[in-house]
Amino acid sequence: MFSFKPDRSQYPAPGPDGKLQIDLETGKYLKLWQGPNHPGITGNMSVELTVCGDEVVEGKTHVGYLHRGFEKLMERRTFIQVFPIVCRVCVPEPDFNEYCYAAAVEDLAGIEAPEYAQWMRTLILEMGRFNSYMMFLGGIGGALGLGITGQWMTYVRDLMLDRFEELTGARIYHMFILPGGVRGHLPEGFEGRMEEVLDTAERYLADIDRVMFSNSVFKTRTKGVGVIDPALFEPYGVTGPNARAGGVAKDLRKDSPYLVYDQLDFEVATATDSDIFARATVRRADVQTSIDLIRQILKKMPKTGPAMAKIPNVLHWKIPRGETYIKGECSRGEYGYYLVTDGTGYPRRINVRGPSYTHAMALLEHLIPGTNISDVAALMVSLHTYPPEIER
Amino acid sequence: MTFEWIQVPYALATLFIILNYGLLMTAVVRKLAARVGGRPGIPVWQNYIDLVKNFALRSKINHGVMYYLGPVFRLSGGIGLILFVPTIYGSSWAQNFSFAGDLVLALYFIFFGTLGMALGAGESGHPHSAIGVSRGLAQVTTAELPMALAVYSLAIQYQTLSITEIVAAQQGGLFNWTLFTNPLAVVAAMFAFVGTMMRSPFDVVLAPQEIPIGPPTEYHSAYLALMQTNRAIFPIAKTIIYMNLFFGGAANWAEFAIKVFLLYMIPAVIGVVHPRFRVEQSIRFFLKWGLPVGILAILTV
Amino acid sequence: MKDVDDKFLKNLDRTVPLREELRPRKVTTPDGQEIEIEPLKDYFCEAAPKVHAKSYFPIVEDFYNWARANSLWILGFGTGCGAIEMRPLMTPRFDAYRYGIQWRPTPRQSNLLMISGYLSVKTLKRAIRAYEQMQGPKYVVGLGSCTINGGMYWDSYNTIKRLDQYLPVDLYIAGCMPRPEALLAGFMELKKLIKAGKCEGANKYAENFATYKANQKSVIKDWDMPDYNW
Amino acid sequence: MRDIHALLKQRHRLGPLEPRKGGLAFVTVPRENLRGLLLELRDTHGFTHLVLLTAVDWMEDGLFQLTYMLNNRGRDLTLGIRVMIDREEAQGDTIHDMWPTAATYQRELKEMFGIDFPGSPRLDEEFILEGWTDLPPYRRDFDSLAYSQQTYAERPGRVTHDPREYMKSKLYPDGV
Asked: NADH:ubiquinone oxidoreductase-like 20kDa subunit domain spans which residues (chain C) (predicted)?
């Protein structure tokens, strides 16, 4: 009925080097900085937008506001001293760093973590994944002005953090998975209390279904917006839920089972549209998978057993020369640690492969041109990026 | 219309009551949103403290004359609206300065604040302000369209442009309200009401996630305090107009408080559970739903 | 503490040139006029902050301080990992709104800058800018051990070690990272300080402006601020 | 993995295959053959996913090792391709035309290691650091602690212990 198609003939033409010819002094374009201090940005990063009217013609991601030089600091620490700082690489889901680092060290040092530790690690990772998805579901509502989902989801996340606290003694940085195993056993009555949390979570998620996913305004805002062409998945290194939303059932938990995922029973959720709505629904389904997995793990895991394998004296721990790459499916995609040792007591090089690295940089810059300013925040949240793992 | 000096303190008293009522209502609405989220929320007197705090800030930065006048225009829009609208029907002192054609003036004042804000925010020079203002003007223009049509419809129905006379015509029972005598006009006007109360799904003007709170981005200290005062007065004043035109007005302060509260809660409740529209989506929404209903209301009178 | 390690000497020769778009130049306006612009002068205020006196009557100042303490508007700028514990503060479990603490998206309207964790040099520049945009009296709270003495990033080449060298800090909350309960306790402590009239950070900053600027410039080498970067 | 290695070994002058557990293997290739190898792996053998691109500084040997990690989802194979380049004239070949996302990695390598990738887009723009004037920080000869001590003011009172000595004194206070 009313069609508001933007007039694209006014757009800047790409020059010979493929870059857009934008002359700010013509007054036709406006530079907008979103971030780092901006409520619509996921964490501490910024997007430099060039807008023409309400349409964005160019977007550049700027990161580095959280750079601490982790990969350098790790080279200066012994293998056990690295362990407390790895979790700081990614704040909202720190456990994956601990697991990847521990598994990489175990791989190179030839240590096998005991079975109980394997189950425990899977439990911790699923709990962390649940927390991360809670942040996402709150964030995507918040980015579109539906603050209530953020309130509910953060509350549920707090409940899960209580269970983390009970298990590990810390709310955010758990430092529970260390090379050789895990730090402890399940406390008495943990299963019952976890079941209460999961029940509450399911109740709140049903509310989210009603308020967010069946809300017509939410659908209007998200359907058909920010579509990633599935042909771009490989060139841009898209993994995890972002790829699953485009119909590609990529999930390392199924494709390349690690820990005890081959003994667990779960389905990989996919969607077809590859837009913001599809990415949100895939994550909503994944939360359910996570809840089911936590229940299964608590039922199937051995009740007792050693939590730690025997590791050498950490003060004299030298690992022979070698290199390895350990990967896993975190809530955002493929998370991996590339560890190189040179036979001394210090790692030669550790490289963290965070999924946000490709999602927030090359992919986001590719997706932003042509969107509305209003959609930039939702688009960024829907890619589920955490800046600390980009710059480390 | 005769003018008597006693009207001045009377009008100021009305203004004072409405200011306090508005400050409390704003807090109540925020408490409502907090309760839906499961929080206790701010104390109800928080707005007063915020006002005092903002007036008490020591430093202020001025970006120019219009920057200074922006909040002043905005506030005069709110106060002007109150002064020319009869608040309590039949009361000798809460009539304010209402006169035969006050409906037209009221419609003008509804728009006046937005225009003043546009000038002020433009002078502040912040790109987010400029974007917010252009969004705001575009959306308010289309959102007020159904309201204007509904007012025409009422003018035809009651053969007057005086709010007092429209209220008088609605007295004598529930079914004399415009709500029942001209329901289409009420529906059209309610579109405008929800659309201009700055709550979701039509709060793209402020949209913190896109353009950090839009037009007032650069406003601070006493300037912001002026705008906060207006944020308390203006929605109540607007609600009074709607109450007078469509819901039978109020014969005493208790009836006023209840009716305004209920009307005020409509956009608040809708806002809690909805995300926001993009600006062109909300424009489309008003043109698609509000405009035809408004035209129908005129045709069926 | 170890002595300074002088086997490695940092490079002092190179300086960062001013970015091209910030150099003075001639431009043609859309209507064909040719004007000279000097972005750093035109876009930024060069005036140093002023010391603002307290109210003349102590009772008025006490009343104002009471209002300031009960209406703390926090700038929602998550500078480090501590930002993740700010969100539970706004939500049901630890609702900080009931103490009059609110989040504002723009620095102009906020009074409290939370430095939530370590500050890399790049963020420090933005934090300083945000702080200078805020209106006095304004307060700074440093969160976590990394703002106090570097914490676990004591040997990092990109994070500062002492926040109070660069901004006037009113309160530190220790921990890595501080729990929400600790944050709430910190806010209560800050309120007490404000009510007692001890939080004069803005005036302190204005009085020692030269020192603060020298400290900031010794760390931030790329000292041109992009416009509207906050 | 062995079949692919055997197939490509002669043509691309591959080094010996170093398998690790779980479908992961590493192989060394001369710089001239890198592009052809990557293209063939991507187009013919299903290694379509560029997992990461990073560098390792072997300062003692005067070499940088560039690691291109490729993944074949269908067969669950991960191949790490090592390219040794000279540390003095550090220069690699850009692969941003094969994987656009590689441009980001190359920007990071340029900034953090000082490895040049001629032709890569926005290579000289600042990526993570801002106004950095010193050596590229990830090089081994850049001393992070010394730089930090010389640049940032420290709060007095911080004590650093050698972990070995400290533990000994805690565990055996009598000096046994």
From this structure: 80-190
User: A276-300 and A190-208 helices cross at what angle (nearest 10)?
Assistant: 160
Kindly report the CA angle at D152 between D148 and D154, in degrees rounded to 5? Answer: 100
Q: For strand C139-143 and strand C171-173, is the pairing parallel, antiparallel, or unpaired?
A: parallel
> Is C47 a domain residue?
no
What is the total count of domains within chain C? 1
Rg (CA), chain D: 21
d(CA A128, CA A94): 8
> In this predicted model, what pLDDT tens digit does every residue of A214-241 receive, in sequence order?
888 888 888 888 888 888 888 888 888 8
Residues of C in contact with B40 (CB under 8 A): 95, 97-98
Residue A156 has what pLDDT?
92
- The residue segments making up the domain with residue C113 are 58-219
ω before A369 within 30° of 0 (cis)? Answer: no
Strands lying side by side in the sheet with C101-104? C101-104, C72-75, C112-116, C139-143, C171-173
Which CATH number is A70-391's, of 1.10.1660.10, 3.10.20.90, 1.10.645.10, 3.30.70.1350? 1.10.645.10
Domain CATH number, residue C80: 3.40.50.12280
What contacts C96, CB < 8 A, 6 or more positions away?
A: C89, C90, C183, C184, C187
Q: What is the mean pLDDT of chain C?
A: 82
- Is there a contact between D150 and C148 if contact means CB atoms under 8 Å apart? no
Query: Which alpha helices (H) appear in chain B, and where do they start and end?
Result: 7-37, 46-56, 65-83, 102-124, 127-158, 163-169, 178-181, 183-196, 221-246, 253-272, 279-285, 291-300
| Residues of chain C neighbouring A69 (CB-CB closer than 8 A) | 156-158
Distance of CA B27 to the CA centre of its chain: 16
Chain C nearest-CA distance from B24, in A, is 15
For residue C203, being part of any structural domain is answered with yes
Residue C19 located in a structural domain: no
Angle of CA points C204, C208, C214, to nearest 5°:
135
Q: How many CA atoms lie less than 13 Å away from C4 in the CB half-sphere?
A: 12
3-state DSSP assignment of residue D34: helix
**C110 and C102 Cβ atoms separated by less than 8 Å:** no
pLDDT tens by residue, A167-225: 888 888 888 888 888 888 888 888 899 999 999 999 999 999 988 888 888 888 888 88
Q: Tell me if A32 sits within 8 A of B127, measured CB to CB.
A: yes
Residues of B within an 8 Å Cβ radius of C: 34, 37-43, 46, 49-50, 52-53, 56-61, 126-127, 208, 212-213, 216-221, 224
Q: Which chains form contacts with chain A, at 3 or more CB pairs under 8 Å?
A: B, C, D
In this prediction, residue A38 carries a pLDDT of: 79
Closest to C88 (Cβ–Cβ): which among A33, A37, A158? A158
| Band of pLDDT at residue C156, cut at 50, 70 and 90 | confident
Residue of chain A whose alpha carbon sits nearest to that of B39: A151
Domains in chain D (CATH in brackets) are 2-128 (3.30.460.80)
Residue C201 lies in a domain: yes
Say what the pLDDT of residue C152 is. 84
Percent of chain A predicted with pLDDT > 90: 15
A234 neighbourhood in chain D, CB within 8 Å:
48-49, 99
What residues of chain D lie within 8 A of the CB of A325, using their CB? 24, 51-52, 69, 78, 80
Measured between alpha carbons, how far is A302 from A233 in angstroms, rounded to an integer? 39
Q: Choose the mutation target among D26, D28, D41, D49 for the interface with A, i.e. most A CBs under 10 Å.
A: D49
Residues 105-164 in D contacting C (C-alpha not used; CB under 8 Å): 128-135, 137, 141-160
Identify the helix (H) or strand (E) that includes residue C186.
Answer: helix C180-195
Interface of C with D (CB under 8 A): 1-2, 4-11, 14-16, 121-122, 125, 148-150, 154-162, 165, 215, 218-223
